[in-house]
Write a structure and sequence with these properties.
Layout lengths: L1 H33 L6 H33 L18
């Protein structure tokens, strides 16, 4: 049960962070337009795209590192599993 609530909280944190970044970017564009300065939307959109890509690469690197760690830690040739017979008990 506790693992499920942790997953839900993590998903809520991730999606709320993405929503806040998106809303903040829209507000920045709206307030920049009121100041009399012209806003080139194409440039703002590409800037937001690059910012999101940096975040995506960081998250991807963390997930990939976690996959490598889990694969290496629980591999079949790990020394911890060397002296276990087929019945599951230690010899």
């Amino acid at each position: 049960m506790a693992f499920s609530s942790v997953n839900k909280m993590l998903l809520i944190f991730i999606f709320s962070s993405m929503a806040v970044i998106g809303i903040q970017s829209l507000i920045e564009i709206a307030y920049a337009a009121e100041g009399g300065e012209t806003v080139i939307r194409r440039v703002e959109i590409w800037g937001l795209f690059y910012r999101m890509m940096v975040a995506a690469f960081i998250v991807g690197a963390v997930v990939q590192g976690l996959n490598v760690y889990i694969s290496w830690r629980f591999r079949e040739s790990h020394p911890r599993f060397k002296n276990i017979d087929n019945s599951g008990g230690k010899v």
